[in-house]
Amino acid sequence: MLSTNLTAGMGTPRPACIPPSQFFAFLATLTVHPNFTTRTHDVEKQTAADDALRYLQQVVKLVGPSNSGLVRAFRFVEAQKPNTSRNRRAVTRNITDLADEEMEYDAESIRSRYATKESLWSKADDFWSVVGWAFNCSVVHPHRWRRWKVWLELMLEILSADLESHAEDGTIAASMFAGYLASVGERGRNTKRRLMRAILADGTPGSLAEFHEVWRDETKGPRPHKNQEGNRQHKRQKLDLDNGDFGDYGDESSGEDSPASSNRHSRSSTAKPSRRDSGNDDDISDESQASRNKDNEPLTGLAAYGGTPSLHLRTRLLALLVRLCALSPTTFLDTEDLFDIFTEFLRPLPLAIFSHFVCPPRPYLDPDALSSMLQMLFRPLLAGSGAPVYDENLLTQEVFEECFAPYAAGGGGGVDNAKVSVMVESLLRLLWRNGGLVGRRSLREAVERGVRVRREKVAWDGRRRTGAKALEEDEAGMMMEASAQRMMSVLDLLD
User: Fold this and answer.
1) Which residues fall in a compositionally biased region of kind Acidic residues (predicted)?
2) Among 136, 143, 247, 384, who pairs with 410 as Cys (CB 3.0-4.6 Å)?
3) d(CA 407, CA 418)
4) Domain segments of the chain: what residues?
């Protein structure tokens, strides 16, 4: 009904028909709630979750976040009550109460616990707690990640569109994303670090302790089917519509024994878990993931951070942060302070993940922002290397040749030198894409000298390494050589 009303009259001047805001909050909960997704075999419930997601996507596309009321609907209860405890069990007011008081509409409350005590907006502390938990799921709970992934994609579409809308009229501080940043607080740098911990959540015990599940037992699988004898012994509840007692309707076990759900369960139980491929985690089973963790074998490569889809969403969040800070430095941080925090968290990342952020397959930052971030990251890595300190933050070919290309990392070891090589390559690509490169001898000499001194630095590092550390250094050496070959290819094209 909602979808039909939304699309009726398209192509005419008639306004779109949409429900009150609390319906959007309710539907957003259904899209990810485990009782409608990963903890049920009921096909009707799973279809309801998919339909709710599809409807919200239609609203964003056809009406927009601000005009539809999504911005007002997608507010976390605790974020609007800063003087209360963060303990979710202490929350006594629900989303409907807030809607009646603050969203200024006169509509009947939704009589469902998924709109009140089980609502996502009431259960989660704030947006960043959900982000951290979702990215933890991308590493250790792939079945939950499939639902959180589509929810995050929807939220990023809404946040981006709303931010650009406010940018046009100069009211960035009133944007939805600025409101989510306000929940972090203004008590210093440490509270702002929480954003980066959420964006880089990696499923480790510390990350899971800080960003835990939204709903109790969320990661468990579907409930087992009840046998016929158990169903006969089940006492049927009384139906009293006048007093809001719906009997067995809405019972979590209802529909579990339908033929459709039984067939679905039999098919899923016989399916073989797929192996983890190169970064695409959409087919990863929890069984295969658990077997890896059980043997205490740490995930490596992009898999350590949830694969390519997870990393793509992480970079989109970083880009959104940069965009807001560039548009309104006083709303949260100015870009220099933001990149300083980026440096603190990105520099120690594993090499494969570090490379994804600093030299991505597709740029996620505009040229000026990427250049500024790279130059900030260079400072700690080139310290002690003899490279001149450059603080102007304006990238030119002359600056590239004199301050970055010909140097190795200040410390020994293959990992740091591979990181320097990847960042030099990223700057070279950036200049190439923006027409800032001119083919000349000095450019080739600077790049070749850098390649040579980094190789020598690694070759003369006298520390002996064994086991995982030795493997890490070998992989760093291969990545450094691959980066050098790509830079030589760019120079050959330029010539």
Assistant:
1) 242-255
2) 384
3) 12
4) 1-123, 126-213+279-297+308-332, 347-494
